[in-house]
């Protein structure tokens, strides 16, 4: 099957293509050099052509997301999706049902979405939901930062054994990366407590957040995983937390190798607060950005706040309890034995609320103050900052100082004073948008065939109805938002799956997972040791734990070469 | 000799085992047609354990076998889940979807000359059958 | 002889996965580690079942061909304006997904047994949330376990042995380091094992829970007794709950079915929320059927709603009290019913059951049931977890693999196969085929 995307303005930053008019040729699902004259032609004249969007952090599947859906029938009532002959029905604004999630991403021109936090004991559930998210390629990150075996191994200085265990866990859960959330803090939350300093000891485990992060950073390197450790540090959502965020980034500085990133800090907006309490909260996005600018071992993603109603959900149980205490909203807690936890609280971000306005400013400041767009990615930490369907709005804000300043005039004066946004006039280019929403994220994930349009890449292409030569993103921010919300064409593996924001085909996406290659005898020892103590750890049997590859309709393992 | 009680329906081991043996089995019938009463209530009623009693609520009435509870709960009758108990339950759900299976005001009277219906007879009588 | 280890029991929400089953020549010859209920299921499953589809003619069940049975069901569903597809809690997630797809295809209502079980619990969760965990956290940490309005000795026999009172956890050695509290209107068999038994008046749960909340918040209770319980005992219980290191409140149908229903759950969850200001405390419902959690979970991710999902508008719509099975039947709104893996004629109030029987009714079930004896068409299916594999979700949301250890009788298909066939036929009919 051949496709010719003709005459579009192509933005392919990985291959240094910056808005040239070019043809993109596709055969059998891949980008090729030439196609024959019988290729189907898509006329992309006057339109922008980019690689399909790659979202590396969006809570779309799994036990906690699903309890979020259960918690919020009111979120569903006002956003319904009728069945069509081709598509399933669904619901949901901030916590959409699975079919709706896939369709809406496809409509925006996204073709790859990763679920960033799954408890290994329940990751079978996560994959079942991912299987019901149509069109997009996907993966999930298992949680390791409060895992009992990991903490014990690191406490005992057994790094190689820890690495072997992590390797086993990634294989068995079909996970893609090492996710760390509030390291040690969620174990403390098992007793209703939390940790607030990097050198606080986890009760009963004798390790600290610093040791957990450093240990897993080393494990990540030993296993040769494609993505660095993906970290949600301690103290999220707490005034003054920018200090611990900097400390977190610093704590693995010495482990960096070859100038490559060895840590990714996620949704940094929630982690860049100054002040000592909510009254004095201020933006320290400039300090965070300065550190990121001066160091090559760390990358970040935004976690942008969108004014409106949404749902917060993270593995950070103690944080979510605090949020419940602040907002008095309904609250879900869900601890997972020997592994991690979760919490959910609905929230409405209000522009008139000084705190929310500062949070809104911080996300944008981070993206605009970090000079290199390859280091800062577009996310809302869906749905924590806002629904993923608002990415186009964020794009319009990043590209237009005019609209930002309009909003700045409407936020409380105190928020203006305590943030930097009013003084930033940088406007991102289409190329930079392509970087932060696809090229950089694909690169960060180690997905060599995604995020670019070079020969050999997967033919995941999005075409947007904007003419970069005639549009002025600064003043025409509404058009920008609308165009990115409804792609003119979304192409997945060389097939048109959406046209003008309507899904026209619903193929099944791939499920990526990482398969660390470690010596057989090491794996055998790890498994044997685990089997011996499995019933002491869990209330399920070893044989019934994990995810068989058979469950994944398009299982796509990525081998990783370890140094074990 | 009739007494007023509060009726609770619920699970019991016998009903659980019985339903696996089949809803038409002897085991199930024995479990699901019991009406467990407190010793003092049996005395007020003037019946021995094993005697037939009529249990009536605003929704209906059914003949069951009185049994003595091992533990005191005066004023409460316990009937395991099943179609016999459900002859006594109102279909109103108070807008929740859930009928009031527990906490039903009932009257119990001795029924020495009436017999317990089999499952088929009960369904026939209740539902008309097909 | 084949030995199957680590078999997941398909009876109650405990989903114990340590069963050991021996099979010789397609017969189960030994069952180890099962409780009396699980054992009953494995021992007796072979009896009391059809081995071919039957249709009721003049009140007599006669064997019919599977294709004819499938045709009848498909035609009936397609012709219906507002069909009800009910049951689901005793089959696999794979079958449940097909059921939802089928209900969506025919614009009907897909409801499961939650509607007469923990539906009120879910309604409480919609309002206030929930404070829960997987069962292992209880085993590892809990020093105070409260069972309220439930009787695990009868309904979840291995719950205390596997998860809560007797087993050893990382931080708690066993029975001696745990306190068991039972709250119930009757001194049940579970109450007899309790360290503390609080006997309350039937239907007074809301008041007693509210009194406990007051005690936890240091408010004065202006009464001598609440729900038949002296205020001093209520205050003692509150102290016990506040003074523990890690407490958990398990509750059952005593709360969901009694006066107050979803408000009882709202109150219980709110009590536990309040307790979290003092100590670590959780709350969990005791789910009855082995895969009722799965029915909720699958329904929620696919449609946004956990049960009583109405597709008649073309998109999922949910309103318990309106779209729930008993209410639909009470109002006589549904013009046909498909029952899968459940027995509503036995389990619903009589008046609702009567309306069930009054419309075209089909049943897909492994057992002969009260409902199947009234059904126009019954299609027998394989027992999930014995004769068919599939996924189930434990009461705490942990997914587990159900096994197939024996073959079903000749001619008996799985729920998945039957529902797939019906769905295919429905689509053919809708296309004009």
Give an account of the 3D structure.
The complex is a heterotrimer of chains A (564), B (130) and C (433). With 564 residues, chain A is an alpha/beta fold. The two termini of chain A are 43 Å apart. Chain A has a domain at 53-445: Alpha-Beta Barrel (TIM Barrel). In chain A, helix 6 crosses helix 18, helix 13 (391-399) packs across helix 14 and helix 13 (391-399) runs antiparallel to helix 17 (477-485). In chain A, strand 12 (229-232), helix 9 (242-250) and strand 13 (263-265) form a beta-alpha-beta unit. Chain B has 130 residues and is of the alpha/beta class. Chain B has a six-stranded mixed beta sheet. Chain B contains five helices and six strands; from the N terminus they run βααβαβββαβα. In chain B, helix 1 (13-21) runs antiparallel to helix 2. Chain B is globular and about 40 Å long. Helices cover 28% and strands 32% of the residues of chain B. Chain B starts with a strand and ends with a helix. Chain C contains 16 helices and 22 strands. Chain C is of the alpha/beta class. The model of chain C has no long low-confidence stretch (mean pLDDT 96). Chain C folds into three domains: 2-41, no CATH class; 50-116 and 290-430, 3-Layer(aba) Sandwich (Rossmann fold); 119-285, Dimethylsulfoxide Reductase, domain 2, CATH 3.40.228. In chain C, helix 2 packs across helix 16 and helix 3 packs across helix 12 (292-303). Helices cover 36% and strands 22% of the residues of chain C. Chain C has helices at 36-44, 66-79, 93-106, 119-128, 135-141, 152-155, 159-164, 205-216, 231-243, 253-256, 262-275, 292-303, 325-331, 344-347, 350-357, 415-430; strands at residues 2-7, 19-24, 27-32, 54-57, 60-63, 83-87, 109-112, 129-133, 144-148, 179-184, 196-199, 225-226, 229-230, 246-251, 280-285, 309-310, 317-318, 336-340, 361-365, 377-380, 390-393, 399-402. In chain C, the strands form five sheets. In chain C, strands 5-4-20-19-18-6-7-16-17 form a nine-stranded mixed beta sheet, with helices on one face. Chain C has a five-stranded parallel beta sheet with strand order 11-10-9-14-15. Chain C has a three-stranded antiparallel beta sheet with strand order 1-2-3, covered by helices on one side. Chains in contact: A-C, B-C. The interface between B and C is large, with 52 and 71 residues. Strand 18 (331-335) of chain A pairs parallel with strand 8 of chain C.
